[in-house]
Amino acid sequence: MHQAYSMTHKIKWTVCVLLISLNLLQAQSFVNKSNNAYGAKCYFKIDANKGGIVYDDTLCGSVYIGLGGYYTDFTGPTSTSSGGGGYLSLTSKSFIKWFYIGSDGMFGLGNYKLQSFLNTSRPIVEDLGYFVLLNLNLVGIDFDKFFGIPLLFYMNVAVDFQDFTIHKYGQGFLYGSGFLGFGAFSRIMLTERFGLDFQLNLSYSFIRSYQSYGIKHKVEGFDGSYKLEAVIGMVWKDYEILPTERKRRIPDFYARMKGIYYDRSPMNVAYFGDTRLFNGQTIHSPKTQNFMLMFEVGLGY
After folding, report:
1. Minimal CA–CA distance to 95: which of 44, 32, 47?
2. Residue 155, Cβ neighbours under 10 Å: how many?
3. 250-294 pLDDT, tens digit each
4. 78 close to 283: Cβ distance less than 8 angstroms
5. In sequence order, what DSSP letters do the residues of 29-67 get, joined into one string?
6. Which of 83, 112, 228, 235 sits CB 3.0–4.6 Å from 254 for a disulfide?
7. How many whole angstroms separate alpha carbon 107 and alpha carbon 174?
8. Where do the H-state alpha helices sit in the chain?
9. pTM here?
10. Cα 17 to Cα 45: distance, rounded to the nearest angstrom
């Protein structure tokens, strides 16, 4: 509990520093600005009575499609897994006046090295595994509309699923978790076309499950387990108002690095596996700290 409080306290300070830094930089908003330096694709129309292009800031949106690679290191109650692979991501952002809603999903496939520390007689094996990460950002508020600071603050609901052994080796395991929390996103446009993205999420687990050989355990309710996500990226945008010789837009290009840290509270699980060990006994799983490192590139529309 003390560690969770300490982490929350650090996040509050981080957000405060980000707010002050953005204000000092006089960064441009990622929604609608009179200088046309938009971070989101805003819908517009041509109105001859108003001298040409008129932007409508009541509805903006972007969709991003990316490919990336990742490395992960996980520890469960009975074994460990480390490895990496590739993944596909899809992200959408929509703005309606000063409200924001967004979603993103990732599907990854990789090769993992699995080792059991409960039964050391089992050899280290390698197997394919996969993960699915889903995020839904709700009730987002654009602070730029009220305070002139280009920052989105939102509520976050997430579902994470990681299966480290498709062939169900005894050394493998799978994790499933549901999270509820909050986050912040900002885009600093350094030029009319080049910008930097920053994102931070903190969410707490309200349900989580763990399955492996001889174990099938579920924890319901908030028990102090949480995940922390941090993203830094860059974007290269097309012109909002095309030069006269240009007839079509080109997609935006982006690249980003993402880190996910999982802090899972201790739990007691019942083991019904190898009778030569302690079948039917309770295993105490201490607090575990796991992570994923990711890098991706993609296009925005």
Report:
1. 32
2. 15
3. 888 999 999 999 999 988 887 776 655 555 677 778 888 999 999
4. yes
5. PSS--TT---SSEEEEEEEGGGTEEEEEEEEEEEEEEEE
6. 235
7. 15
8. 2-25, 144-147
9. 0.80
10. 38
